[in-house]
Amino acid sequence: MKKSYFFTVTFKQYDQNALGINQEFRILAGNQVFYGENRAFRHGELLTKLEQGDEVCIGASQLSDGSYYLHWLYSADKGVMEPKKHQYDSVTPSPVSLIKKLGLIAALGTLVTLTAFYFWALLLVLVPVLVAGYFFIKYASNSLIAEDKFNQELQKGLNAVMQGDRSSCLSDDSLIPPRPQEEADRIDDLNETYNNSLVLIREKVNSVTRHHHMLKIKYGYMHINEATFQCQNQNYNMSYYITDPLLGPKFNTHEHPVFLTKNDSVTLIYNRENNKVCGLFNEIDGSAYLNKNRMYMSPKDFKGAYYFLFFIFLFMLFIVSSINIFEWWGADALPDRWDWIEYIEVMTFFGLFSISFFCVLMLILEITNLIFYRRSSQGRNTQITRSMLYLLRQRQGRSKVIQEHIECFRR
After folding, report:
1. Keyword Membrane, does the record have it (predicted)?
2. Number of domains, the chain
3. Which residue, 330, 324, 328, 331, is CA-closest to 345?
4. pTM
């Protein structure tokens, strides 16, 4: 569940994303960094009226890297910027009530079916489906309720601030700034060790240009964002795939799009051979972006693979169970003791075999990834870039959260 945060902070800087497609902006205020999209707000022009030193109140939710997504902003002198609202009228049912009605209809329909024929067989097959459906509906309903509660808290906070009540807002004095850590020596050691393939520089961005490309594949198109930015008359290229069909990446509950604009101070880690950027650290807002090789699997990728295989295991277990039950059904007789023993033996054997198979598969993936890192220059560059970005984040006292993008090999 998302948590709402309220701040009373001093405005420092407003920037528009040069790499953005959806009018993303960045606000530096107090010791915090806030992101958002102009098109999602009413009175977005307020941001251009703010001046350095203005006191503003902000309602936001936290992203995975410690920055915040802005939901509203209030200035006593300049006005309020709040999100565009989509109200449900009295005729149109809300998503929560709709899900509850659909769940009730599905439950009644299933109950009627169960009492018709072969109660025991249908029960064994449909009980897992009912359980899974119940938890899915419950999760979806709770998510919508939590989202509605979250929006109500944000609106309540905005109303309180506009009425002069700032008791729920954290001030600059109460916010502890990040504590920088001495990681410069470790970064320099890595840079010296791998300077034959990777180069690390700290420069100011003079200009940024973005190009969007569509790459035709077998089942459609892949969208590519290609950024070219100039630092001290030297051009650097960073291209990565975008999987969002609306040419994202859009904001979500976890991370923000790649943000870069003119005059940002950045640390670049690029390939010496082709000047392609492998990693980028924005010194202004502390964001770190890894442009990884497509063959390299990060810890985040392995976590997703484990979840996916677990889902496949449960699905296959359900299929095997259904096959056994329908065999009993075709025999037109109730299962006896030996049928149940055989059923348990089959399920136990299949479960142990599946677990062993998936463990071996993941072990192969782990070993392959390790070999790719050890033997391939591309894999090694990706891993070293990740380590450098970790250290750069720690040097500013931030967490080890970096955003990952798959490098595009478009020529």
Report:
1. yes
2. 4
3. 324
4. 0.74
Given 85, 109, 132, the domain boundary residue is 85
* DSSP for 12-49, written as a single string: EEEEE-TT-SS-EEEEEETTEEEEEEGGGEETTTHHHH
CA distance 404 to 288: 9
Round to whole Å and give the CA distance between 139 and 93.
Answer: 19
Mapped onto helix, strand or coil, the DSSP state of residue 8 is strand
Residue where a domain terminates, one of 47, 63, 85: 85
184 located within any domain: no
The three-class DSSP label of residue 365 is helix
Q: Does any domain span residue 189?
A: no
* Residues 218, 202 share a domain: yes
* 305 and 258 in a common domain: no
**Which residue segment(s) compose the domain that 104 sits in?**
87-167
In a shared domain, residues 79 and 97: no
- Encode the chain (411 residues) as per-residue pLDDT tens digits: 578 889 999 999 999 887 766 678 999 998 889 998 888 888 888 888 898 999 999 998 888 888 899 999 999 888 899 887 643 333 334 454 555 555 555 655 655 555 554 555 555 556 666 666 666 676 666 666 666 777 788 888 888 888 888 888 877 655 566 666 666 667 777 777 677 778 888 889 898 888 777 777 766 677 777 788 888 888 888 877 765 544 444 555 577 888 888 889 999 898 888 778 889 999 998 999 998 877 777 777 888 888 888 888 888 877 777 777 777 766 666 677 777 788 788 888 888 888 888 888 888 888 888 887 777 777 888 888 888 898 888 888 888 888 887 776 554
Strands 198-204 and 265-271: antiparallel
Any domain includes 320: yes
Burial degree of 24 (CB within 10 A; 0-12, 13-18, 19+): buried
One domain, residues 78 and 113: no
Q: Domain for residue 188, yes or no?
A: no
